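Sanity check

After download, print the first record. It should look like this:
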Amino acid sequence: MAQITLDNLAHSYLRDPKADDDFALKQLDHVWKDGEAYALLGASGCGKSTLLNIISGLLVPSRGRVLFDDRDVTRQDTVQRNIAQVFQFPVVYDTMTVGDNLAFPLRNRGMDPAFIATQVQKIARMIGMEDVLHRKARGLTADAKQKISLGRGMVREDVNAILFDEPLTVIDPHMKWELRTQLKALHNEFGHTMIYVTHDQTEALTFADKVVVMHDGRVVQLGTPEELFETPEHTFVGYFIGSPGMNLIEAEVSGSTARCAGHEVPLGGAYKTLQGRVQIGIRPEFVTLAEGGDGLPVTIRRVEDVGRHQILRAEFAGTPVTAILPESMPVPAGADRLRFDPDRINVYVDDWRVTPLHPVADLRKEAV
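Expected structure tokens:
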């Protein structure tokens, strides 16, 4: 296993990049700790696969270095880095049996035959292919071939890291959850450094110790699933994580109050007067429905029953706002206000979260 350090890293597919927009991967300085499981999460085209290919050695970055522990591997190939990589679409040897495909990385390194047999049986059991070990890979479904690719990536115990590039795209939906669980179990058992690229937040949040969210070629946040949900550091994280995503409303913020289209919203922290494009963000889970009194006046557009809860779709001053309501909660005929939990409101300037000067609770204690 290895700690992976990205030092002043950037990449452009142009020969002579000049402007920031010329870079598919903007400057990165990050440390991926030895033995942790990471997910690289973001929309298509955000730079996830570019970054993964730089870490794996398939791509040399335009700028910066890649370090495995303290060793500079920037210009070393995949074999020299001693990593395993599983791609989006299956890569198998059709003329080999399933068992020989799984055994190939171990035989290629001269491992003991008894160890190889044990490992192949173990991985075959994990991916549900014990009964077809002696069958040729030719003619198998894409789903089955991808399971072979996954198994071949996991069969070695001596790798510095295992990299997965959207590996479950062609896997049957019923099998995805089981394979994610098995990958997690493998990580817990052997402690490999794992990096898993996906655009699916469920895959990312259920697999990883920490999630790296990318947007427009940048890492906008690295954190635990809880941190991404509670305190998104960028509005994209708030939008991309959660279903539905975070509500964002234009505001003027001063002290512990936000003014939204002339209406005051109490905040859980005190802020200096902010300049730029200011927004407040709150998850639908922390929005409640009320009739009259305090809160933002809204027009309710519809209520969607999704089984475990209801999603209320409303509009405030031309801005869509959503709230998650209990499944059995009736919506009062006169309901026309939405209230926000002040302690759950985040404040953003030009899309980046601003840390409050003080929590309001601290100010109340000082007053007492």
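If your output differs, re-run the checksum step. Summary of this record's structure: The longest strand covers residues 252-260.
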